[in-house]
Amino acid sequence: MKSYRRLPDCNIGIKELVPSERPRERLCENGPDSLSDLDLLTIVIGTGSSKMPVRPTAARVLELFDQTTGEKELTVTDLQTVVGIGTAKAAVICAALELARRRLPQKRRQIVFPKDVFPLIRHFGSRSQEHFICISLNGAHEVISIQVVSIGLVNHTLVHPREVFSDPIRERATAVIVAHNHPSGNLNPSPDDINVTLRLKKAGDLLGIKVLDHLIFSEDNFRSMLEENELN
To answer: Is 35 helix (H, G, I), strand (E, B) or coil?
Structure first.
């Protein structure tokens, strides 16, 4: 399996990197699936501005992506709030997002095993903060949506059932799988991870939306609390 390698520092200019570490060259050599979200955005944006180099600009756009949930879609105006993104670059990003949506396969991905979830979320493994994610499923356990619920340490304050189940209720989901990345690479659940999971399970039972699993993952691997019998 290909791994998402991080570039040394998002503040380092592209020209300062050796060719083998530059996003465009790595894409040509290893394919787009070998790049992180930050690398891909760096290629889409192309160049920096007099105010901000391209990689820090891409990092801020990526933060905006992660903070946009539910039915809201990023607009040119939203993107222009990022230093270094003008009308032209904002339009390119919006066009790329819309083209990707139109080209996505119509058939929904069915989840049978925990390993089926990992390819859908592993690009979040390169984030420097914990991202708590909710995957909504229909009655056939096909993916309806994947939403970032919160960014920061997983605890009962940030990960509230109200926020987790908001989209699944609206989407008439019958089940969810929750997941979050551990930037440290240690996939063992913390006490907060376990407590939050049990709290969500109880809330899901009341709502009629079953919490099937909680995945803890890094860039290269994952741990399923279901497989480890940690959901009871």
So the answer is: coil
User: pLDDT digits over 100-138, tens only?
Assistant: 877 665 557 899 999 999 999 998 998 888 999 999 999
Q: What is the DSSP letter of 32?
A: G
For 70, other C-beta atoms within 10 Å of its C-beta total 11
Within 13 Å, how many C-alpha atoms sit on residue 200's CB side? Answer: 35
Residue 20 has pLDDT above 80, yes or no: no
Q: Which residues, 6+ apart, have CB-to-CB distance to 35 below 8 Å?
A: 4, 23, 26, 27, 43
DSSP letters, 124-168, are GGG-SS-EEEEEEE-TT-BEEEEEEEEESS-STTTS-HHHHHHHH
Cα dist from 19 to 8, 16, 22, 26, 205, whole Å: 13, 9, 5, 8, 52
94 C-beta neighbours (distance < 10 Å), count: 16
Q: What is the DSSP letter of 223?
A: E
